[in-house]
Amino acid sequence: MQTFVIGTAGHIDHGKTALVKALTGTDTDRLQEEQARGITIDLGFAFLQLDDDLRASIVDVPGHERFVKNMVAGTGGIDMVLLCVAADEGVMPQTREHLDICKLLGVKRGVVALTKYDMVESEWIELVREDLGNELEGSFLEDSPVVRVSSKTGQGLDELKDVLRQQARGIEQHPSDGLTFLAVDRAFSMHGFGSVVTGTLVSGRLRLDDEVDLLPDPAAHLRSLKVRGLQSHGQDLQEALPGQRLAVNLAGTERQLLQRGQVLVQAGSLDPSSLLECTLQLLDGARPLKTRSELLFHSGTSRTSASLQLASPDKVLSSGETGYVRVRLAEPLAVLPGQHYILRGFNAIPGRGTTLAGGRILLNFPPARRGRDRAQWRAELERLASGSLPERLEAVLLHARADGLDLRELAMRCGASARAVERALTPLLQSRQVYKFDRERGRYLSADVLDALVQRSIELLSDYHRSNPLRPGMPSEQLRSSLIPNPSPRLFRLLLGELARREAAVQAGEVTRLCAHRVQLDEDRTSDEAAIGALYEQAALTPPRLAEVVAKLDRPQAAVKELIEFMVRSGALVHVSGDMYVSSQAVEELERRLVEYLEKHESISTQTFKGMVGASRKHVIPLAEYFDRRKVTMRVGEQRVLRRRKATPSPAGERSS
Asked: pLDDT (tens digit, 9 = 90+) per residue, 438-457?
């Protein structure tokens, strides 16, 4: 069955509630005060079966200017407006304001009911029709049907139902693949059932036993509540679809915690936000709107004060103009991109009301924009305003920078279900516009962010090679910590893989180098290398310490140490410990003699090994421990024995690692 929501609109005492009762048999003035005073104060609800497969939920709103805040709360999620204009009065200020509100909320369909038709003569009716036509010109109701009705006599009711039926057939279906979102317009408790909230399911689906959150909920008392019952106009449901008016029975909470302005969503699917970026349309006749203006922000059934920051170059929006705005809310609200909002002020537009502007939310978690380029800012918001889901995904991932976003975060920032987001991500992943860098948590990264990391990594590696020409590469962890912000280990692995894929850089062991980097000695260093090599070969197993080499070469210590480390990597020297380096040839010869001795005698004492080395303990002990580390020998008490190995790596092999 197709379901949709009709919202009434119109000035006070123009017959909205009476017309709803004539159509449905339901008196929507449920409050004792409403019945006593004869005016609608709060929202009322009824349903109208228009066909076997077509049911309308009707939200009846107040018409008095003092209760426009309640009227706005009732218009969230409506598919069609039923504008009531009394034939004996014609267009009045709240007629215009309600029409403005519907336009700003993106309502596209409607019917005009010319009520109290029985109370005026035909000549007066024609004057009212002419006045009404002038008011509706250029609005979404300009070409809508106008039906003359009398709730008292029943005249025109059948025609009105026919017109509503025809209009309903053209209503666009609500997105079932969106996030579950219901703005609460009523909360109460029922004996034997417990707490109940009502509202229109704007998007997504809701099922019995689902776990839901009510937001905002700063004290975290309204999380993971179980849906114990679902009804739509008294009919029990197992599953609710978008466009239905619902009563949701919730387990695990108390009535006093529930109120209008909250929203019901699937548990964990949405967070409230206090900063938004939106389109903005200022109504004709409104005063110019300036940056830092303080207004009342309405979205769905919620309301809070807000401060505006306009994206226009002169930070001013004139009457009738459209633009973009950054909205800072006094209290966090749970909203989704694509939803509409209303801005109301404190001074009325002559002949209309205090509704000044409205628009559509583009970003519910916008990025920091310090020192922003306003032209670039507006261009981005223009793309978001008309962009497809993949385009919006690219934008919010770019905002996330190196942190990336997971499916839940992407869904709430795009107002789509996780399944819809996954579908939209597939071609982006295939074309490398988006990367997945954390498969366990499912985090995604913008290709632009990865490109920036790649370029910065190349710059850092180039600088490192320039400063350390004899080193094989930059320690990988040093590279990671030099990037700002520091990428996570998982993201860094993706970065290294991308550097390799682009043949820009490669990781070798614990270092990373540019693919084009080659260690080469200039003429001076070649000469110094030969001199150092001669010193160590001549000294054999009694090598000089670093300070002695520096003194003999008369070179800076850092330059000498860098050259010695290069010779270790090239296999000419072996690093024994501390600043003790030994000629590779001398170490290999000592190892050969040590192994031969142990194969004959099974163990060797430190004193015997000292005689084999032919040096003092300051050389002998480091060499003995070196062979232990190399797993050539193993210490047993005061002796060393040959460690049984399948194969012994060569000293050169260790040096080059």
From this structure: 877 789 999 999 999 999 99
